[in-house]
Amino acid sequence: MKRRHFATLALAALMVGSIAQAAPQAPDAFIRDLSNDILETAKKDASLQNGDLAKVIALVDSKILPHTNFRRMTASAVGRYWRQATPAQQQRLQDEFKLLLVRTYAGALSQVKDLSVHLLPMRARPEDTEVIVRTQVRGAGEPIQMDYRLEKAGDGWKIYDVNVLGIWLVENYRSTFAQEISKGGIDGLINSLAERNKVAAAARG
Questions:
Q1: Total domain count for the chain?
Q2: Enclosing domain of residue 60
Q3: What is the C-alpha to C-alpha distance for residues 14 and 161, in angstroms, rounded to an integer?
């Protein structure tokens, strides 16, 4: 399996799982349980492995978003321009960005069967409210680095950025989004994301 495809597959795992937290967890335990639950869910569901987009979106909405600060993720990707956007524009950006990510990675779910996630040592103090949890995704081929930026949220944790093979998701999109905004403003970025999602939908038939 090519490293680039395996990295895409690793990030896909983030998009389709669930986790129930009965008690406060350490951040690395949170990621461990979330990752294992994600993989088990995908391995048992043929429709997810076949890229059923509606089911992937439903799972993201009900299972992943409660454990993700997606507003912060989108705002960070948009950068300084976020504060120029109206509340309606901010919501459209979140909606289109989420759909872009789901469409981008849904097709990779057919390859989850051989994957496992292993935690790497974490350096953090008990009082820290933002931490990085580092993991390796292992399967057929070389291990893939996959790390998470987490923030303390009440008694638990929320993900606000993901790193695959040394590339943070937010930073990867920030330069592209800035170029779109410089050409057409906030609405230009929204329209560009919407068009990409429309093209992707048409390609799937």
A1: 1
A2: 3-204
A3: 11
